[in-house]
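Entry 12.
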Amino acid sequence: MDAHSRGRADEIDPADQWVLNPQTGNYELRLDHSAGQSPAAQQAPARPRRSTVPSPTPADTPVEAPVPGQRRRRVTEPGGGAQQPPSSRRKRKQGASRKKKVLLWTGGTMALVLVGGGTGAYLLYNKLDGNIDVVDPVGLESKGFRKGEDFNVLIIGTDKRTGAGNGGYGDNNSPGHADTTILFHVAKDRTNATAVSIPRDLMTTIPECQSRQPDGSILTIPGQRQARFNVSLGQDGRDPGCTMRTVKELTGLTVDHFMMVDFNAVKELTTAVGGVKVCVEKAVDDPKSHLKLPAGESVIEGEQALAFVRTRSSFGNKSDLDRIAIQQQFLGSMIRQMKSDETLTSPSKLLDLAEAATNALTVDKGIGSLSKLQDLAKELAGIDTKNISFATLPVIDNPAEPKPITVVPHPTQAPQLFAALQADISLTEVKKKTQDAKNAQAQAQAKLLQGPRAQAADVRVDVFNGSGIQGAAQSTIVWLQNEQGVNRSTNKSNAPEKAAKTTLTYAPNQADQARKLADMMGLAATALKPGTQAAGEREPMTLVLGADFKGAGVPINGPTKAPDVEKVEADKQVCAK
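Predicted 3D structure (tokens):
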């Protein structure tokens, strides 16, 4: 029998020998006789890890529970002696909510147990706290989590081939590019969250950034226009702070925190929870990713789970966008498993999950400790999985390439999605949130916008660009004509000067046209400027786009409902096709 099974070893961290008693909620010391245990503790029979918890025993006999993964090192006091925990014990409150066990999940990388209560828990706490890698992005100050405000966490899965068995995947020398990236938006009222996947082959602007190098020096890296999104990390020495800035440039959303993992995270986290359930419509045998699955449902973990999220050849059109859809389905299933009774009521799974998660994570300084990750967990704990939506940034093939292999943001749908996130609008249409927004919009526009509407084909309008955004008038014309049926619209190029607000000027006999255009563009009543003289039959209205213009099809006055984008909720099991 080895030292682990005997419950003793000369070089085992004492923190590893404090075990949770699920009946009392306390951590109890399990050492050899020389450690000075109480007689009751010495009498307790040692059991191997993951042993079955015995039936209730007398109060003076400790009951053993599974031990978290051990590390071969000794924790010592300055004087050289092994640390001993204080003798006081705290019991957990009876009837505590499952949420009080606080499981952290955030997208697909993430799980962390708040270890609290019980004698000696601080040793385990310090061990987990020491597992976390921290990067302090230059010039990005964390604001933490403020009540009543939404926040955004960038989850980055890199293609760095560190870890056992990962060297054979693709480019073994990759510095770690942004292979899988998810912007996780948490609503200010904490009722919902939206996870938006950003394609790695998206062409976008990477702004100039300063990156902290391994030797502690700070490197200034020039920006790039029309670069692949995935090189915002790793390339030319860029750190996660550069990716955070790139996402802000792309979406207009401030990224408050980041969490970064490599291939090992998928293997270790799926193993820690005992596997993740997936579903495929037909049997899979992919020689590239080595994924083999029968048709229907399977439970996968470790190497098989990594193969599932990496495969390009097994589903859809064998593209990166199809792989994103598979990853979203996998992450939804993983969240369900992490929040399930099977996980939350198992001390061994929770401790394994905490060990795997803290070992896997690299985070920013703002959440760079167990206590700060605990704060994040509390912010997320109450969100129902049915109100967690996964979506992919809407894109089109890159028109600059004769045979497109990259993509660019969809000219209307992408700005609509960004505007919804900026306005904290849920893709799951949380009833109270959307209704409040609709009521406010309706009250503001009720008087001026009452009356009949013209048909879209009868609306005549000249569009001037006063927004300062290049191409704003033309993109609006394309949207009006192709998606709204306003064919009598004309691009009049730049306005004489920049405008702070978008305005629509119209004659009294054009009021029905103005109301129709206001409905389409989400114009507030204050944007409508009625004239005093009647217009000729063919005379157009004048629309001047202002600095509040955020994109063609994006309501000027802010969205009141979620955009129509493909999405999947985390509570739904979907079979991969």
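Annotation: Residues 444 and 469 are 27 Å apart (CA to CA). The two ends are 48 Å apart (CA to CA).
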